[in-house]
Amino acid sequence: MPRTDYQRQLRTLRADVVEMGEVVLGRYDGALTALETKDEELARGVIEGDDEINETYLDLESDCIGLFALQQPVASDLRFVAASFKILTDLERIADLASNLAGYALDAERQRYPEVDIRHIGERARAMVADAIDAYDRGDAGIAREVALRDDDIDHLCETASGTVVEDLLRTNYGDESAAILEDTSRLLLTIRDLERVADHAVNVCARIVYMVEHDDELIY
Amino acid sequence: MSNTTLNETERTDEPQTPRTTTVGESEETIRPSWRQYDFEGDPKISVSGLNVHYGDDHALKDIGMEIPEESVTALIGPSGCGKSTFLRCLNRMNDRIRAAEIDGNVSYDGENIYRDGVNLVELRKRVGMVFQAPNPFPKSIRENVSYGPRKHGDIRTGFFDRLTGRDDRQQRDRIVEESLRKAALWDEVKDRLDENALSLSGGQQQRLCIARCLAVDPDVILMDEPASALDPIATAKIEDLIEQLAEEYTVVVVTHNMQQAARISDQTAVFLTGGELVEYGDTDRIFENPNSDRVEDYITGKFG
Question: Which residue in A6, A74, A78, A216 has the most chain B C-beta atoms within 10 A of its own C-beta, making it the best mutation to test that interface?
Answer without folding.
Answer: A74
